[in-house]
Amino acid sequence: MIRHGLNLNFNVDIKWHLTWIQHFSQQLSEGILYPRWLAGTNYGYGSPTFVFYPPFVYYLGSFLKLSGLNIQDTVITLFSSALFLSGLTFYIYGRNKWGRIAALVGGFVYMTSPYIALDIYWRGGLASIFVQVWIPLLWWLTEQSFSGKKWRLGLAICWTIIALTHTPSLLLCAVVWLLYTLFFLLNKPWKAVVETILSAGVGWGIASFYLLPAILEKRFVNIEVMRGVVGGVKLNLFNLTQLFNLIQIGFHVAYIFLHQFLAIALLIMIAFVFCRRQSAVLQETCHWSIFALTLTFFMSSWSEFIWQASPTLQMVQFPWRLLQIFSFIGAALCATVFSGILKLRLPPRLLLSLVIAGILLMNFRYSYKWSNKYIALRNPGRANLEHLQDIKTIMNDPYTGKLRDVEEYRPLLKNGSSSPPVPLIGQPKISVVSGQAKISIQQWQSYNRIFSVTTEKPSQIKIRTYYYPAWRIYLNQKPYPLSMANDGTIELNLNPGEYTVRLFYSWTYPFILGIIISIFSIIILSTYWYKFA
């Protein structure tokens, strides 16, 4: 990626991430501290993208872009940083747990895990790849929190960052982490376990300024369409009896699951055959094995009844997103077993070290294959020309109303039963639908628009801005009710007269409540820090 530039054959996500960084950073430069509405997307109709999509990675990207990097190098730097930091955080987690050498090996296994390669090079999951960075820190801080109260401060902050990084990963991590943490009731004081869980609640509370509007305002947009993407949850569960058939038809994540599962099975066999006299290694191997089998169940078709019973879980779209944590388990098991191998006599130690090296090389082979499969912007000869033109527009001409946004964030029409039509490129900012009116625009910024209207007869005016309850209209300095046109935009119905119209984006009640909860949670965390730090 560093050598050839961005991959032009990304399957779905990268063009959205590129678009969002461009407009997020541009609105930050306008002085908007938290750009929830991206005014220039959807051909200028706008989108409440960051009401529903967490902003953490886009602040990082905006910082890099505003510091002088172009958009391509910004995204390459983000992907490269996430890849490096995932190995580093795994090493931090494991250096005291298994020793430095075993933690280093586990870190390399984690960095080269097939799912991370797929997420970077095929899916272009810029936000989700950063969750791979936080997972080892989450487990490290959790285990430290059982014995040290001060570590719960870090755990709360870690959960805040995860919440502000990627929402589907947040939901899955929360479910898996809660089950994992409750498991420690078997050998940890119940009070320590409960307080650890409560610290996670404080972390989620700090992120309420994002989470609460994302939950309470989803009824205004077409976000429910996400349940049906690529067949929804049902078609993305692994049928373990037909796994090879799924691989043959090109279901990449099925191969990744099998690859990771076989590596885990091999590591378990090594532990029970060669490290059977090391009780600590066997105990931890059993621990991670149960964890792996539990995730296998949740990714398999046997768990369909659980997914179907929860509309909230269905919003993650793909149960195989659990491969994020599954990859972490594989790396942790590798570090566990390798720490046992290092204690063996020299001949078996060398032989089994070669087996571990083989697992690492198989991982690397898969990563290398995907990183070189599609040549990119700096070498577009083998690239998809349709993607090439899209990416060039996003990179070179992002602010002239030529970019769309995702369908799920478009507002629902009046009846609430369908999304608005596809936005039309090249539409005027303000148009007269009926009647006669003269319009003069004085100001047209992302969050603040001012224009004057002179009408000679009753007129209907349409503003090229999608309806959303955060928008406010003032007519001659007096509040005016917000109204939706048939195409989902904002409309004004004016009697004859002269008007000065101000349209501005404001705070919604869920956002205000979310900020209050965030401040309250920060106060709780600060009090806890003052008491125990």
Structure report:
There is one protein chain. By secondary structure, this protein is an alpha+beta fold. Helix content is 57%, strand content 10%. It has 21 helices and eight strands. The chain has helices at 14-29, 49-52, 56-66, 71-98, 100-111, 114-123, 126-145, 151-163, 167-183, 190-206, 208-216, 232-235, 243-248, 252-274, 279-299, 304-309, 311-314, 323-341, 346-373, 385-396, 509-532; strands spanning 430-434, 437-444, 448-455, 459-466, 471-475, 478-480, 489-494, 497-505. It has a five-stranded antiparallel sheet, with no helix packed on it. Strand 2 and strand 3 (448-455) form a beta hairpin.
> What's the helix-strand series?
HHHHHHHHHHHHHHHHHHHHEEEEEEEEH
Give the termini separation. 42 Å
Low-confidence stretches: none
Q: What Rg is obtained from the alpha carbons, in whole angstroms?
A: 26 Å
Helix vs. strand class: alpha+beta
The percent of residues in helical segments reads: 55-70%
* Mean pLDDT reading: 91
Shape designation: elongated
Separate helix tally: 21
Strand order of the largest sheet: 2-3-8-5-6
Annotation, overall tally of beta strands: 8
The largest sheet is: 5 strands, antiparallel
Strand content: 5-15%
